[in-house]
Backbone:
């Protein structure tokens, strides 16, 4: 498929979120940054992003023959792992302490593993096998769903606990 990606392409939108997460990891690691604020933004983004993928993107991608359903299902499992690692960091009281650093590195490892794998499998499959028009429709649905979760403050520790325990 040689179609040019557009700003509403779901693949590009997901990649943009992944790059934003990487930037937030850098801020959470920096002694010069407002780490707690970076964590709040990260928590909201991670939860909203994962829920929007699971509600609007993944089910649609599974309908395409050349998109690997097992990789899509594996992505959902990895979202659960990411939520658990996020909760562990949210529960640390001493921002920047040893426990914070340890839990942050576990979160970075878990989420980076997922984003790398998703980019190499699911997103490449989508780029190659899903027509641009459909990717744009999925992009609009992804943005709408993610925005609703962000407005609801989905990264709040109580909500993350509910998600992890469900």
Residues:
């Amino acid at each position: 498929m040689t179609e040019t990606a557009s700003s509403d392409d779901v693949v590009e939108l997901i990649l943009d979120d992944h790059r934003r997460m990487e930037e937030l990891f850098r801020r959470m690691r920096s002694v010069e940054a407002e780490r707690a604020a970076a964590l709040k933004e990260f928590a909201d983004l991670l939860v909203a992003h994962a829920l929007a993928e699971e509600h609007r993107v993944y089910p649609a991608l599974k309908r395409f023959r050349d998109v690997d359903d097992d990789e899509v299902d594996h992505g959902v499992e990895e979202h659960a792992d990411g939520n658990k690692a996020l909760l562990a960091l949210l529960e640390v009281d001493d921002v920047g302490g040893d426990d914070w650093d340890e839990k942050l590195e576990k979160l970075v490892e878990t989420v980076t593993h997922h984003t790398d794998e998703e980019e190499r499998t699911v997103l490449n499959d989508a780029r190659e096998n899903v027509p641009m028009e459909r990717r744009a429709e999925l992009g609009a649905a992804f943005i709408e769903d993610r925005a609703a979760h962000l407005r609801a403050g989905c990264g709040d520790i109580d909500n993350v606990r509910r998600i992890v325990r469900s």
About this structure: The two ends are 39 Å apart (CA to CA).
